[in-house]
């Protein structure tokens, strides 16, 4: 893309380019033609902060913003992107807020604990000279067409949080006080930072239980970023080296590929674009939203907050911001995928306990082993010539099998979706051995030995029993004795005696497209 294309994009672009000097224009044109400019922009955000690439992506897109729209009825649809960073202490949350306030020309920094509803929105005060009531702008009004950074957002009173509901979604502030009735513009993006309840993030409960926010205000944030302070030797060492380098040489240690001034000019230029969805991107957006809704409806690993239409609008705004970052008028499917991945990364799944497979025969095996040992001792006492059996030949209690919840969920989804596909294609279920052979073949690359495959087969038997117990699958028994006897099999003795073979079907209460239980 050359200079002519840059100059032929519209009046807003032309006005912005006319304000640049020739060296600044040349630098902007070079950035415009740089391949993979999106990733280079992300790397240049908050260079003094080590890591946190996903958070930097969100902040870059917040600076770019989505496209503001107006319906034929005159209703305004916001294009601003709201972000909340939740994390443990000392995870650079406030550093991101300070960086944005220093970077953006219209940005206001405030603390939630020290801010009231009137201080954030607007207050009605009496003028000292005239004695009349006037409106005094709050932080959200002062940050109109900019970003309002609110630190310690979780420390705000609930009543004060409610006051900014309208500003976050409708982009306006309505006042009816002291004879003054007014609707004021607050077209601002909100960048909030919050600490978890109790000081540290608890992964065994959802995001809703970790922060002191109401559900309505949570739904108004487009992205939630959870930043955890995890102990990892390699990461800790590199982080320490980065911090020491910043203190030793503040200017030399932080050298982003794109300077702050050049990045500011690029953001100004990119914000003049109003990208539109292509048909392929629009269809993909609908499909991604359907996937999010289906995964939210499942009872497996519940998400941190409910997926609503607001999250669909969030994907629209994020896709538009990504297109702006790439300085293009068309939103392609790749941009939608990036927006989907960003939104999905902000949905923190609850950490589940490991899944134990209790063997119903375990107690019987233990009792049988104990009875056998007692009988052997009694026989020894009656007949000393009887040799004592070797310890390894004595019956040992079976070991309880345990896997992580993520592993169980992965197996469950693969099995349920495959059974659903077989039922849809053939109109009947799938035999147990065929199902097990299919799964082991699908996971063949993960096995390093025959022993591992044998262990996985034993685990698969228990998972299938649990899926039947949890009403994901159901069993119908066949009638062919020959088929049963020829198979090398997972059937129980009772099934063999009955001359039956196991055929798995999808349970009527399960949605085969999402492996979730309906209702």
From TrEMBL:
Pfam families named in the record: MCM (PF00493), MCM_lid (PF17855), WHD_MCM6 (PF18263)
EC number: 3.6.4.12
Positions with biased composition (Low complexity): 369-379
Keywords linked to the UniProt accession: ATP-binding, Cell cycle, DNA replication, DNA-binding, Helicase, Hydrolase, Nucleotide-binding, Nucleus
PROSITE patterns from the UniProt entry: MCM_1 (PS00847), MCM_2 (PS50051)
Region annotated Disordered, chain positions: 369-400
GO cellular component, one term: MCM complex
Highest taxon of source: Eukaryota
Record-given protein name: DNA replication licensing factor MCM6
Source species of the chain: Rhizoctonia solani AG-3 Rhs1AP
């Amino acid at each position: 893309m050359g200079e002519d294309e840059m100059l032929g994009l519209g009046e807003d672009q032309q006005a912005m380019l006319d304000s640049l000097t020739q060296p600044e224009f040349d630098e902007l044109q070079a950035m415009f033609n740089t391949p993979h400019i999106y990733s280079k922009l992300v790397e240049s955000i908050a260079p003094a902060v080590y890591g946190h690439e996903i958070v930097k992506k969100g902040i870059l897109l917040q600076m770019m913003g989505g496209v503001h729209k107006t319906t034929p009825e005159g209703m305004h649809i916001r294009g601003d992107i709201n972000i909340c960073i939740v994390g443990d202490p000392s995870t650079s949350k406030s550093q991101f807020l300070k960086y944005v306030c220093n970077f953006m020309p219209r940005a206001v920094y405030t603390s939630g604990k020290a801010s009231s509803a009137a201080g954030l929105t607007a207050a009605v005060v009496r003028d000292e000279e005239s004695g009349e009531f006037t409106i005094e702008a709050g932080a959200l009004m002062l940050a109109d067409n900019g970003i309002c950074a609110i630190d310690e957002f979780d420390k705000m009173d609930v009543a004060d949080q409610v006051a900014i509901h309208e500003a976050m979604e409708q982009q306006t502030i309505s006042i009816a006080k002291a004879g003054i009735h007014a609707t004021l513009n607050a077209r601002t993006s909100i960048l909030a930072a919050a600490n978890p309840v109790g000081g540290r993030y608890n992964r065994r409960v959802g995001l809703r239980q970790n922060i002191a926010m109401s559900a309505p205000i949570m739904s108004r944030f487009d992205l939630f970023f959870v930043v955890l302070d995890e102990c990892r030797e390699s990461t800790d060492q590199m982080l320490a080296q980065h911090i020491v380098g910043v203190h030793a040489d503040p200017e030399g240690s932080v050298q982003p590929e794109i300077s702050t001034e050049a990045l500011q000019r690029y953001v100004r230029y990119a914000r003049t674009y109003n990208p539109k969805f292509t048909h392929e991107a629009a269809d993909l957006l609908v499909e991604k939203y359907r996937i999010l809704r289906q995964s939210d409806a499942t009872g497996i690993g519940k998400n941190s907050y409910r997926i609503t239409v607001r999250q669909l609008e969030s994907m629209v705004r994020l896709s538009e911001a990504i297109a702006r970052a790439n300085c293009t008028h068309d939103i392609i499917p790749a941009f939608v995928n990036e927006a989907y991945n960003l939104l999905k990364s902000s949905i923190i799944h609850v950490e589940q306990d490991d899944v134990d497979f209790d063997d119903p025969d375990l107690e019987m095996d233990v009792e049988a082993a104990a009875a056998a040992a007692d009988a052997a001792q009694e026989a020894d006492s009656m007949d000393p010539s009887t040799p004592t059996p070797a310890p390894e030949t004595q019956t040992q209690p079976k070991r309880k099998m345990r896997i992580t919840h993520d592993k169980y969920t992965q197996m469950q989804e693969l099995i349920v979706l495959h059974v659903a596909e077989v039922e849809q294609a053939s109109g009947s279920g799938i035999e147990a051995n065929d199902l097990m052979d299919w799964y082991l073949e699908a996971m063949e690359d993960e096995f390093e030995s025959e022993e591992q495959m044998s262990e996985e087969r034993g685990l698969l038997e228990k998972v299938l029993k649990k899926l039947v117990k949890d009403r994901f699958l159901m069993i119908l028994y066949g009638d062919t004795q020959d088929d049963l006897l020829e198979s090398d099999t997972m059937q129980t003795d009772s099934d063999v005696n009955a001359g039956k073979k196991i055929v798995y079907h999808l349970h009527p209460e399960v949605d085969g497209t999402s492996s979730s239980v309906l209702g």
